[in-house]
Amino acid sequence: MKYKDIFFDLDNTLWDFDYNSKNVLNSIYEKFDLKKHGVISKKKFINVYKNINASLWYKYREGLINKDTLRQQRFFKTLIFFNIENRHLSDKIGNFYIVNSPSQTKLMEGAKSVLFNLSLYYNLHIITNGFKEVQYIKLKKSGIYSFFKKIIVSEDVGVLKPNKKIFQYALKICNTTSKEALMIGDDFISDVKGAQSLGIDQVFFDYKHTMKKSDSTFTIFHLKELENILI
Fold first, then answer.
1. Is the separation of the CB atoms in 206 and 214 below 8 Å?
2. Is residue 98 within 8 Å of residue 138, measured between CB atoms?
3. Tens of pLDDT along 54-110?
4. Judgement on whether residues 202 and 212 belong to the same structural domain of the protein
5. How many domains does the chain have?
6. Same domain flag for 96 and 142
C-alpha cells in the first residue's frame, strides 16, 4: 500500500466536538441559571460563545494570546455580551466546561469501526491543536485511545497546525516520510493546507459540505468513505 502511517485530527474528525460541546453548554445554561442573570435565550448564549471562542482560538493559533488568556476570556466575554460583568461567575463556568467537556463520549458516525478496520493495515496517529490535558481524556473516555501509536499535541511541539513544524515533528517521531503518510481532518486550513506544505497527502473530511471544490488529495463526507480509499 502507498501509505504506512495515517494521521487523524481529533475534534470534529473523530470526536464530535460540536455535539459534545453543545451538550455541556446546555448544562451550563441550566446549572448556572443564566436565564435568571438575564440571558433569555439558550440558543443565543451558545451561538455567542461559539463565535467568541472561535475568535480567541484564531488569536491563539496566531500566537497573539496564550492558553490561559483563551480560557479566561471566552466565557467572560460571552457574559459581557449579555451585560453580565461577573468574573467569579465566568471562572466557575469556565472550570465546569474544562472538567465536563472532555468527558463527553459522542464520536463522529462510524469512527470506531473505521479506526478498527484501518488499524489492521496502517499505523494510526493523532495530530491535534487541542490542549494536552483534555485531548487525552477525550480519547480515553470515548474508547479510541488504544487505536493510536503516537499522539502529537500542539502544546508538546510549541506550534499549532497548519505550521509545518508540527507535521515535521510528527513524521520524525513516527519514523515515516511525507510520501508514506496521510493526514485526515475537517479543517481545510489546519489539516489540509498544513499537510500540503510538507508534501503529505490529505483527506478533507467535509462533513458539513462546506466546499464545492477542494484541492485536497481526497475529499470525503462520511468517515466510512475512508475504507473505499484505503482498504
1. yes
2. no
3. 999 999 988 899 999 999 999 999 999 999 999 999 999 999 999 999 999 999 999
4. yes
5. 2
6. no
What would the grid cell of residue 68 be?
490561559
Q: Which three cell numbers stand for residue 129?
A: 491543536
- φ/ψ of residue 203, rounded to 5: -115, 115
C-alpha cell at 211: 466546499
Residue 130 φ then ψ, to 5° = -70, 170
Nearest to 49 by CA among 113, 110, 101: 101
What CATH number did the domain enclosing 211 receive? 3.40.50.1000
C-alpha 105/C-alpha 90 separation (Å) is: 25
Same domain, 128 and 221: yes
* Residues sharing a CB contact under 8 Å with residue 6, sequence separation 6 or more, in sequence order: 118, 122, 123, 124, 125, 181, 182, 184, 230
CATH of the domain at 90: 1.10.150.240
Quick one: cell of 39?
A: 440571558
Residue 211 — pLDDT band, cuts 50, 70, 90? confident
Domain containing 144 equals 5-16+107-230
Residues 98 and 187 occupy one common structural domain: no
Written as nine digits, the cell of 132 is 494536552
Here the cell at position 25 is: 453548554
How far apart (Å, rounded) are the C-alpha atoms in residues 65 and 61? Answer: 8
Residue 125 and residue 75 in one domain? no
d(CA 109, CA 223): 7
